[in-house]
Amino acid sequence: MNSSKSPGLAGFGVLKNTTCHTEKKISVFFSIIFMTVGILSNSLAIVILMKAYQRFRQKSKASFLLLASGLVVTDLFGHLINGAIAVFVYASDKDWIRFNQSNILCSVFGICMVFFGLCPLFLGSVMAVERCIGVTKPIFHSTKMTSRHVKMMLTMVCLFAVLIALLPILRFRAYQIQASRTWCFYKTEHVEDWEDRFYLLLFSCLGFLALAISFLCNAVTGITLLRVKFKSQQRQGRSHHFEMIIQLLAIMCVSCICWSPFLVTMARIGINEGRSKDTCETILFALRMATWNQILDPWVYILLRKAVLRNLYKITSGCCGMHVINLHMWELSSIKNSLKVAAISESPGSSKQINLQPLSSMGQ
């Protein structure tokens, strides 16, 4: 009788009078599929990034590869740890009272959900800032953005995400088993305490802030690349510009589409003090949408590479009956070529060289 008031069972309150029911076979199927596809896709992306790092060892490329590798490794461990816990919960028939008497598993699950949710968003925004600096300020990027600095940024981002995930534990606030009894997170039902609202709003605000930074930096990067492309009036590097812009747009769209439903749902619950009309099925749908972001992230780097885009362009042009333009050799990476063109455009003599080209042609 008194055990229900103990701290170890603080997360079991939601198990009573729950109205959320999920089909066991379908839910197990979704969990296994998400975990398997996520692990395979991220492992493939890691192999591609490792080969790219061995092939291109330029300083300008190293920082991007380190950040991309950190993002993919984080997604991989997120699928591995969260997926394994979710499958174990389904295999145990969601009987939390039997295997989680001390609430340790729920706390670990909640910490992992918060950490592996925020860390990829933070890394995506850091990558967007790094690309923006590399394109707009190539000299500063080549001299200041060293591999050691990038590793320090990765460490700081991970430590900050860990701090946010451990904040409820440090404040002696237990993570709660959600209404579907399949995952743990902040308290989302009967939210009355200001601290519970604070955690939900903090998670949502940090997620939206990371998406906003990514959107802003990617927009600046894309506009800068287009301006340099039309200003230089050179065909060299045109394919690299299009490759870069396509990757930026894909990453930005995937993150916004996948994460916005979950962030909006959590923010609405925090603002409405748990009186939100969001049902358990709505929250589960938003959670699965967020999970797809970690699955699609590596495929952006796998599919939207220069070789794949070049072959896709040739196939599309052939199917449409268009003449395939003999594109320039893509012997340089997109970031290296963007830095080269941006540096030329920023140099004082670039305008003189461009103005002298028509005069020399007239003299001939």
Automatic annotation (TrEMBL):
The chain crosses the membrane at residues 26-50, 62-90, 102-129, 150-170, 198-226, 246-271. Keywords: Cell membrane, Disulfide bond, G-protein coupled receptor, Glycoprotein, Membrane, Receptor, Transducer, Transmembrane, Transmembrane helix. CDD domains: 7tmA_FP. Residues 41-301 form the G-protein coupled receptors family 1 profile domain. Pfam families: 7tm_1 (PF00001). It is found in: Cell membrane. GO terms for cellular component: cytoplasm; extracellular region; plasma membrane. InterPro entries: GPCR_Rhodpsn, GPCR_Rhodpsn_7TM, PglndnF_rcpt, Prostanoid_rcpt. It is a multi-pass membrane protein. GO terms for biological process: adenylate cyclase-activating G protein-coupled receptor signaling pathway; cellular response to prostaglandin D stimulus; inflammatory response; negative regulation of apoptotic process; positive regulation of cell population proliferation; positive regulation of cytosolic calcium ion concentration; positive regulation of gene expression; response to estradiol. GO terms for molecular function: prostaglandin F receptor activity. Gene3D superfamilies: Rhodopsin 7-helix transmembrane proteins. Its main location: membrane. This is Prostaglandin F2-alpha receptor.
